[in-house]
Every structure is written in C-alpha cells, then in structure tokens.
Amino acid sequence: MARTEVMIVGAGPLGIELAIAFKRAGLDCVQVDAGQIGQTILAWPPMTRWFSSSERITIAGVPIQTVSQEKCTREEYLAYLRSVVMQFDLDICTYERTLDISRDTDAFSVTTRTRAGKVRTRTARYVVLTTGGMAAPNRLGVHGEDLPHVSHVLADPHTYFRRDVLIVGGRNSAVEAALRLHHAGARVTMCYRGTSLGDGVKYWLRPEIEYLIKKERIKTHFETVPIVILPDRVELRTGGGDTVTVPADFVLMMIGYVADMSLFRQAGVELTGDREVPSFDRQTMQTNVPGLFVAGTAIAGTQRSGVRVFLENCHVHVDRIVAAITGGTPPPEPEPVLLPEA
Predict the structure, then answer these.
(1) Domain CATH for 189
(2) 50 and 75, same structural domain?
(3) Fewer C-beta within 10 Å: the chain N or C terminus?
(4) Helices then strands (H, E): number in the chain?
(5) What burial letters (b/e) apply to 22-52, b meaning 16+ CB within 10 Å?
(6) pLDDT value of residue 332
(7) What would you report as the CA-atom Rg of the chain, rounded to the nearest whole angstrom?
(8) Tens digit of pLDDT for each residue in 198-228?
C-alpha cells in the first residue's frame, strides 16, 4: 500500500495552490481529481469571462497575463492552470475518483478508482478535501426536465442561432446567458420566480439586460416557474395561479448548483443544515475529524440564494492548512475582500 504525508482530493485552482504550498514546505503529497484539473471551469461555455479580475484569481504568486488586458476568459485561465502545473512539475492523478476515506489509528486509508477501472488504496497522514461546491446542477423536478433539449449548462451560443430559448433563472449565470444568446441571434425569453432580477446581478451586466427587457427584445416573465416542459414549449405558472405558454426549442436551467458532500459524510465530518456545511476550525481548516481538512468553496457546502464563498476569498485557507500541518503560526485573519467581484 502506497504511503504519503498528505493527500489532496480535488485539483481546482485552490487544490493546485495547496499542492504547490506543500511542495515548497517539503511535504510529500498525492493529489487526485475525478476529472481534469480545473474541471468546473472546463465545463463553462466557450469564452466565458471570470467575474473576478486576474490579480484576485492568481495562485501561488504566479501572475496572469491576458491578451486583452481584461478579465480572464475560460480558455486563458485553463491555459494558466496548465502552465502553473508544468512550472511546478505537479504530478496530479486526473480522472481518478475517490471512492472511500476511512481513518485508522494514526492515518487515513483512501481508495480511488482510475478511468481505466484500476482501484488504488493509499495511506495518508493528512487528507485535504477541496472538492468545490458545483458538483451537480440544481433541479426543479418538473415534467420534461430530462428531455434532450433541456440543459443546465450553456453550450456554444451558435447552437441557439434563430431558435426560441427559454432561460430559467434571474441571477448572474441566467443574465449572462441571456445576453450572449441575444447577441448570437437567438430569440430569448427569461422566466424567474422573483419579482425582478436578483440583487447580485453584476454592475456591468445590469444596464444592458434591463434595457433589453424594457424594450422587450428579451421577453421576461417574473414571478413564474416552469410546471411542464414539452418538446416545443414550456408551461409556466404565475404567482396568481395562471398558466402561460412559452415557445422553446431549447430550455436552459440556470438555477445554480449543489455540492457533493458525500466524502465528508463518509469520513465522519459533521454537516449542518440542508446546505450541508462542514464543521471546521477557521484558524486551521481542520474538520471535526482529526487530520482531515477542508479548503476552498467546499467550506460552504451548497451555496443557496447567492454565492458568498469563492476563489478570491479562499486563498488564506492554503496558509492556514500548511501552518497547521507543519506546526507553524497560523496567518492572521485577512481583511474582508473589498467589493468582491466573484
């Protein structure tokens, strides 16, 4: 059975930053991810831009340069992650899913399965879970949600050219999708359960979307929810109980994501509420299970009604965990991020 000092589960930006910190500290580390590095970002639509500016999403002190000197695109950031992994020569076991985490007397036994089906078991003194908070899309549970023209992920905008598209949701992902598809020549309709667009819609998106809604170039049904999705239309129910039928060749459910907290539960971490927020010490990031740490957006479980934990305010987790494992002094509490952009 292979042995290592630390095992990291997850290879998103923060997981990679953590692996680099362990390497700098001289700690032996094994890192696995069920997908590719930056898997969540890989799933974004082509040319999606970060809401955060580049200096807030850099990792391990490596700066980001973009062609346009604007906020980083999906493609630019994935290239950045690849270059960082190569620069620090990180050996990340991608497409290797973690199946089981169990604690023995003084170490953890971690079982994984590769894409080829090979099962591996490693022993680690410490385990860090950086599994993120976007494992699967939220579902409404309505009839027709599994039809092939219904998706929770925006495809290449060209897909929707001159077709009727219903976008369900009223926050940033829904607004950005509506704008992109409108500019790509789609006939866009939005439906949202709220009385107006979400308060957290980014300042650079709000003026245009509100203008297009006012001019009815993007049709909008507030205080409505889908009740039936059919191959060519969707039936919406209004707050007053009436039914509205909207034509739809495609339906985009832009209603957020849920975290997969199964590994935490399996390992014995206490989870609180329907969001399944893990129990941990803020100074060390250690959970109630000795030797098991949490980092990144996974600390918030499933984030509902607006995201409050994101990459730009998670960097401090790295220094806290390294200090806890090496016996160093934990870093001071950072000042709140001014005007968080994520």
Answers:
(1) 3.50.50.60
(2) yes
(3) N
(4) 8, 19
(5) beeeebebbbbbbbbbbbbbeebbeebbbbb
(6) 85
(7) 22
(8) 788 888 899 999 999 999 999 999 999 999 9
Segment 216-245 shows an average pLDDT of 96
Per the CB < 8 A criterion, the answer to whether 99 and 93 are in contact is: no
Residue 200 pLDDT: 82
Identify whether residues 130 and 148 lie together within a single domain. Answer: no
Query: Is residue 333, in this structure, part of any structural domain at all?
Result: no
Q: Among 43, 50, 90, which residue's Cα sits nearest to residue 70?
A: 50
Instruction: Return the sign of the alpha-carbon dihedral for residues 317, 319, 322, 326.
Output: negative
Residues 32 and 177 in one domain: no
Per-residue pLDDT at 340 exceeds 90:
no
Two structure tokens written together for 29: 């580390």
96-103 and 108-114 beta bridge pairing: antiparallel
Range of the domain at 131: 2-135+257-326
Q: In the predicted model, what is the mean pLDDT of residues 277-298?
A: 96
332 is a domain residue = no
In a domain, 239, yes or no: yes
Query: Within 10 A of 158 (CB to CB), how many other CB atoms are there?
Result: 11
Asked if residue 88 has pLDDT above 90, the reply is yes
Instruction: List, for residues 127-154, the tens digit of each pLDDT value.
Output: 999 999 988 999 999 999 999 999 999 9
Q: Is residue 335 part of a domain?
A: no
Query: What's the CA gap between 208 and 180, in Å, rounded?
Result: 11
Give the pairing type, strands 233-238 and 243-247. antiparallel
Q: How far are the Cα atoms of 13, 56, 194, 198 from residue 338, in angstroms, in the given order?
A: 21, 11, 28, 21
